[in-house]
């Protein structure tokens, strides 16, 4: 009887562990990508950069980032490698962007061909580049 009780307990723990692990995998697969950028606006000056913190993309893959201006043109395209959890924290320089309101579109691009993968979930963030920056803003004081 003592052996059967231990076996039942071990089976229950194993079952709960498997269900918990499966739910983590399912949540990771269906999680919405999330992107935070900082700053959301800045001067059109040399050295202006944007810090990107992203999560929820394909693990150990590539995420494409397209800066789309108000004229629907893409003046800047870049990509970042994701870590084992599908995230990255990196910096991109935006100092050669002209003054405008931009949408930064993010999406998986596993083969790094500049085209979002079919069926990938896309997210975006907004950034504004200010035209008439003062010399103080450009110097970062």
Can you summarize this structure?
This protein has about 140 residues and is of the alpha+beta class. It has helices at about 1-30, 135-140; strands spanning about 35-40, 40-45, 50-55, 60-70, 75-80, 90-95, 100-110, 125-130. It has two domains: about 1-30; about 35-140, Immunoglobulin-like, CATH 2.60.40.
Structure description:
This protein has 141 residues and is of the alpha+beta class. It has 2 domains: 1-30; 33-139, Immunoglobulin-like, CATH 2.60.40.2550. 24% of the residues lie in helices and 36% in strands. It is built from 2 helices and 8 strands. It is elongated. The N and C termini lie far apart (76 Å).
Summarize the SSE layout with pairings.
Elements: H1 2-30, E1 34-38, E2 41-43, E3 49-55, E4 62-68, E5 76-81, E6 88-93, E7 100-108, E8 123-130, H2 135-139
Parallel strand pairs: 2-8
Antiparallel strand pairs: 1-3, 3-6, 4-5, 4-7, 7-8
Give descriptors for this structure.
2 domains; elongated; 3-stranded antiparallel β-sheet; alpha+beta; Immunoglobulin-like; 5-stranded mixed β-sheet; 141 residues
Rg computed from alpha carbons, rounded to a whole number of angstroms: 22 Å
Based on the coordinates given, report the CATH architecture of the largest domain. Sandwich
Would you tell me the structural class of the helices and strands?
alpha+beta
Q: How much helix is in the residues? A: 10-25%
Shape: elongated
Number of strands: 8
Mean pLDDT: 83
- CATH fold annotation of the largest domain: Immunoglobulin-like
Order of helices and strands: HEEEEEEEEH
Supply the number of helical segments. Answer: 2
């Amino acid at each position: 009887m003592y052996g059967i009780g231990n076996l039942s307990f071990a089976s229950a723990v194993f079952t709960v562990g498997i269900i918990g692990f499966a739910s983590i995998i399912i949540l990771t697969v269906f999680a919405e990508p999330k992107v935070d950028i900082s700053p959301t606006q800045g001067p059109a000056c040399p050295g202006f950069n944007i810090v990107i913190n992203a999560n929820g993309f394909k693990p150990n893959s590539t995420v494409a980032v397209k800066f789309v201006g108000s004229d629907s043109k893409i003046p800047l395209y870049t990509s970042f490698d994701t870590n084992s959890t599908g995230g990255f924290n990196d910096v991109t320089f935006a100092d050669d962007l002209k003054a405008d309101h931009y949408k930064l579109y993010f999406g998986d691009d596993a083969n790094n061909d500049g085209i979002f993968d079919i069926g990938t979930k896309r997210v975006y963030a907004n950034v504004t580049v200010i035209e008439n920056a003062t010399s103080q803003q450009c110097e970062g004081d």
